[in-house]
Amino acid sequence: MNLPLGDRAAILAFAAGNREPTAVGANPMAQALGMRLLEVDDGRGVVLLDFEPAAQFVQGTGVLQGGAVAGMLDFAMAFATLATLGAAQSCATVNMTTSFLRAAPPGRYRARGEIQRRGRTMAFVRAELTAGHDPQTTIATATSVLAIIG
């Protein structure tokens, strides 16, 4: 399934639908990273995303560029936050700290984003990126503060 909706609308449609893996079609970066929604828990602010980045993100040494890895983590944290917001709200990353634990060869990845604490104007979120073939292999982690808009 492919949802050509904005990010928030795609999350809501997924949560209300049959919950099959769903590509998010409105965001060019998400498309290039091959992003799909796998799970959404809007009550707890948790999402699970699947990625298979395009070849354009592979650098000369044969591994994914760090910005692509950080992008996958950022999507997971933003989507976890978006899942908890009202219809007229959105969010924006204020800061992000990323720890790269090992090289990321081309392939499939999973990112889990989870809200640690959320107030009216800010959300404190964390994410973990694992190898798709081995969920025990953590590639990178991140924490972020997101401003809640609207």
Biggest sheet: strand arrangement: 1-2-3-4-6-7-8-5
CATH class, named: Alpha Beta
Coarse shape? globular
CATH homologous superfamily identity: Hotdog Thioesterase
In angstroms, what separates the terminal alpha carbons? 30 Å
**H/E series:** EHEHEEHEEEE
Features:
150 residues; alpha+beta; eight-stranded mixed β-sheet; 3 helices; globular
Explain what this protein looks like in three dimensions.
- The chain has 150 residues and is of the alpha+beta class.
- The chain has one domain: Hotdog Thioesterase (Thiol Ester Dehydrase, Chain A).
- The chain has three helices and eight strands.
- It has helices at residues 7-16, 28-32, 66-82, and strands at residues 2-3, 22-24, 36-41, 46-51, 90-100, 109-118, 122-131, 134-149.
- β6 and β7 (122-131) form a beta hairpin.
- The radius of gyration is 14 Å and the shape is globular.
- 36% of the residues are buried.
Q: What is this structure's SSE topology?
A:
Elements: E1 2-3, H1 7-16, E2 22-24, H2 28-32, E3 36-41, E4 46-51, H3 66-82, E5 90-100, E6 109-118, E7 122-131, E8 134-149
Parallel strand pairs: 1-2
Antiparallel strand pairs: 2-3, 3-4, 4-6, 5-8, 6-7, 7-8
Summarize this structure briefly.
By secondary structure, the protein is an alpha+beta fold. The chain has helices at 7-16, 28-32, 66-82, and strands at 2-3, 22-24, 36-41, 46-51, 90-100, 109-118, 122-131, 134-149.
